Amino acid sequence: MDIQLDGKVVQVLPEQRGNGKNGEWVRNSFVLEYSDGGYPSKLCLEVYDAEKWEKMKSCAVVGADVHVRFSVSSREWNGKWFTSARCFYCSSSGVQKPQPAPVQSAVPNAQPAPQTDIPQDGSHVEDDGLPF
Q1: In angstroms, rounded to a whole number, what is the distance separating the alpha carbons of residues 10 and 2?
Q2: Which domains, from first to last, does the chain contain?
Q3: Which tens digits make up the pLDDT trace of 31-75?
Q4: CB neighbours (10 Å) of residue 96?
């Protein structure tokens, strides 16, 4: 299954090495944050091919907006199932996030009003640290 996704790299994980029945393996991984119209989600993508990682690591840096192509597969081991997302293509997405337009003042050399956290209608809501 070939899946395409645009997102932002939020973490590059340390390289991992190990030995398996087919010899030594090397895994590089990075975490992509994306949104499908709802809340942001995160996906850890794995790259096992060293040559592909050499090509991808220039765009798989923290903060980069990227376009990735990957496949998802699951396998069973000792009665447990494991799912992996293997990335085989990564490039700069070229998607530019819109920047807010600067506000023009009708009065020349006017200073902007200071920002306050207290609403102008007199109501006050305490910040309880929750994101909602």
Answers
A1: 22
A2: 3-92 (2.40.50.140)
A3: 999 988 888 999 999 998 888 888 888 888 999 999 999 999 999
A4: 7
The pTM (predicted TM-score) of the whole model is 0.66
Instruction: With beta carbons less than 8 A apart as the criterion, state whether 11 and 80 touch.
Output: no
Cα(35)–Cα(3) distance, integer angstroms: 15
CA distance 9 to 117: 31
Alpha-carbon span 4 to 7, nearest angstrom:
10
3-state secondary structure the chain: CCEEEEEEEEEECCCEEEEECCEEEEEEEEEEEEECCCCEEEEEEEECCHHHHHHHCCCCCCCCEEEEEEEEEEEEECCEEEEEEEEEEEEECCCCCCCCCCCCCCCCCCCCCCCCCCCCCCCCCCCCCCCC
Using an 8 Å Cβ cutoff, are 68 and 32 in contact? yes
Answer yes or no: are the C-beta atoms of 40 and 6 closer than 8 Å.
no
